[in-house]
Design a protein that fits this description.
Number of domains: 2
Structural class: mainly alpha
CATH class of the largest domain: Mainly Alpha
CATH superfamily of the largest domain: RNA polymerase sigma factor, region 2, helix turn helix motif
Oligomer: single chain
Strand content: under 5%
CATH architecture of the largest domain: Orthogonal Bundle
CATH topology of the largest domain: Rna Polymerase Sigma Factor, Chain: A
Radius of gyration: 18 Å
Distance between the termini: 57 Å
Helix content: over 70%
Number of strands: 0
Length: 190
């Protein structure tokens, strides 16, 4: 099977039958798009990663329910991501959905630029706390944009072991980022 040649429809029928290779091919094909959508909606890379993982889990669990005659896979997947993002936006500090979804000027103001710089420093600090293999997995997959198979080969491990390592690395970074943001967010509001 060639992931670049096989259609979404073919891959989804294989996923519905439990084919993990087809699932990985779909993940590699669509992960960037769903992450971008989630990040643009939520304004948070950490939350976008959580949403993307949940959306891909739902794709895996509900592959047999997808009906290609009703919608393209990307449409179906974007709808899942959108609903997950809306749910998260509703849970935020009682802000109404209408206010949360208002379009803003895309140019960052001074406070946003400072917040981004702070977030990048926190990310760098979180990355520095990782074990070298976890740091390498994140770097290869997200920054160097290697697919899972190639990144696993670089690290000399099976693809399944790579996905597990990548998942643990993301969780560690998310926990560190959350811990870093909690005290400063509380102090800033006081």
């Amino acid at each position: 099977m060639s992931a670049t040649v096989d259609s979404d429809e073919t891959l989804m029928s294989l996923v519905a039958a439990g084919d993990e290779t087809a699932f990985r091919a779909l993940t590699e094909r669509h992960l960037g798009r769903i992450l971008r959508l989630a990040q643009k909606m939520l304004g948070s890379a950490v939350e976008a990663d959580d949403v993307a993982q949940e959306a891909l889990l739902r794709l895996w669990m509900n592959a047999a329910r997808w009906q290609p005659e009703r919608s393209k896979l990307t449409t179906w997947l974007y709808a899942i991501v959108y609903r997950l993002c809306v749910d998260r936006l509703r849970m935020r500090r009682g802000v109404s959905l209408e206010l949360a979804m208002e379009a803003e000027d895309p140019r960052p103001d001074a406070l946003e630029a400072l917040a981004r710089e702070r977030d990048l420093r926190q990310l760098e600090t979180a990355m520095a706390t990782l074990q070298p293999r976890q740091r390498a997995a994140l770097t290869l997959f997200y920054y160097e944009e290697l697919n899972g198979t190639d990144a696993a080969a670089v690290l000399g491990m099976s693809l399944r072991a790579f996905w597990s390592l990548l998942h643990r690395a993301r969780q560690t970074v998310q926990q560190h980022m959350h811990a870093s943001n909690t005290p400063s967010g509380t102090a800033a509001q006081s």
